[in-house]
Amino acid sequence: MKKNGILILIIIFFIAQSCAVKKDQYSEVRFETNYGNITMKLYPETVKHRTNFSKLLNQGIYNGDLFHRVIKDFMIQTGDPDSRKAKSGVLLGAGDVGYTVPAEFVYPKYYHKYGALAAAREGDDINPLKASSGCQFYIVVGKKFTDDDLNAMEENNKKKLEAGLFQKILNTKINIVKQYQSERNQTKLDQLRDSILSVVENKIETNPTYKFTEQQRNDYKTIGGTPHLDGSYTVFGEVISGMDVVEKISKVKTDGNDRPLKNIRILKTVCIY
Q1: What pLDDT, on the 0 to 100 scale, is given for residue 104?
Q2: Tens-digit pLDDT profile for residues 197-252
Q3: Are 240 and 27 in contact (CB under 8 A)?
Q4: What percent of the chain lies above the pLDDT cut of 70?
Q5: Distance CA 153, CA 157 (A)
Q6: Count of CB atoms within 10 A of residue 20's CB?
Q7: Taken in order 35, 53, 114, 91, is the CA torsion positive or negative?
Q8: In whole angstroms, what is the distance from residue 204 CA to residue 186 CA?
Q9: Largest CB tally within 10 Å, which of 62, 89, 178, 205?
Q10: Using only C-alpha atoms, what is the Rg of the chain?
Q11: Edge-to-edge, what's the strand order for the sheet holding 266-271?
C-alpha cells in the first residue's frame, strides 16, 4: 500500500508539471528556445486570445517553430507552423491554423511597451476588423521616445481619429450631400461640413483617446516600445522573465525578409499555471 501511495504521488507530480493537464486558460507560460527561456504572463481580460493561446499550447503547436521575423529595435515574431521544417532562406510568415481571433483591444490599459506580447495579423486592406492571426504572435522590443516624439504621434493620432469620425458621420448624411450637390448649393454644403466638424471636435475632446496616458508616456520614455501599433494589434500578455533572451534574438543577423540567417527555434513550451 505504501509503495502504491508513493507511485500515485509521483504520477500526480509529473502530471501537474506538464501541459498534459489541459486547461482552457493559463496565466503563465514559458518558451524554451535554443537562445534561452522566455516566460510570459497572459492577461485575463483578453479572454479569446488567452483561451486560443492555451489551446495551442495544449496541442504542442509551437514546439519546433522558428522565430521567422526579427527586426532590431522593433520586435521578434514566431508561430508560423510552416517554419518547423522550412529550408534556409525560404520566406515565412504565411502559415496559419485556418482561423482568426477577433480583436480584443484593452486600451489604454495594455499597450505596446517593451516586452509586450501581441498577436500578429493581416493588414487593414484585407482585414479591416483587425482580427488576429490564429497562431502567430510577436514580442515587442522597440525603442525609447522623447516627449516631442510622443506629442507628434498624438497629433497624428488625433488627425486620423478626426478623419475617421468625420467620414463616419458624413456617410449617414450622404443623401443630403447629394441633394445639395445637385442643387449646387455650396453654402449648405459648407454649413453641413462645419456642423459635422463641430460634432467631431466635441466627441474627440470629450474622450481624447488619441492622447497617451501618464503611464504610457513614462514607459515609452524609459523602457521603450512601439507606440505606433497601439490600438491596431491586440496585446494579450507580457514577458516577465527572459527579456535578455528576446534582446539577443532581436540583434541576430537576418536576410532581406527579416528571417534570421541561423535558425532560432522554440524547443519546448511549458504551461506554468
Answers
A1: 98
A2: 999 999 998 888 899 999 999 999 999 999 999 999 999 999 999 999 999 999 99
A3: no
A4: 92
A5: 6
A6: 11
A7: positive
A8: 27
A9: 62
A10: 23
A11: 67-71, 75-78, 137-140, 116-119, 235-241, 36-42, 28-33, 266-271
How far from chain centre, in Å, is Cα 176?
A: 40
**Can you tell me the distance from the alpha carbon of 228 to that of 216, in angstroms, rounded to the nearest whole number?**
12
- Crossing angle between the packed helical segments 174-182 and 186-206, to the nearest 10 degrees: 150
Distance CA 11, CA 16 (A): 9
Q: What CA–CA distance (Å, rounded) separates 200 from 162?
A: 6
Cis peptide before 44 (omega within 30 of 0): no
Q: Which grid coordinates are listed for 254?
A: 537576418
Per residue in 24-66, pLDDT tens?
788 999 999 999 999 999 999 999 999 999 999 999 999 999 9
**Interatomic CA distance for residues 51 and 13, integer angstroms:** 24
Per-position DSSP letters for 99-125, written without gaps between them? -EE-----TTTS--BTTEEEE----TT
Mean pLDDT of the chain: 92
C-alpha span between 116 and 138 (Å, rounded):
8
Other Cβ atoms within 10 Å of 114 Cβ, number: 22
pLDDT at 19: 57
**Closest of 45, 59, 117 to residue 271, by C-alpha:** 59
Please work out, in degrees rounded to the nearest 5, the angle formed at the alpha carbon of residue 137 by the alpha carbons of 145 and 123: 80
With bands split at pLDDT 50, 70 and 90, how would you rate the model's confidence at 21?
A: low
* Residue 266 pLDDT exceeds 60: yes
Residue 202, all three cell numbers: 466635441
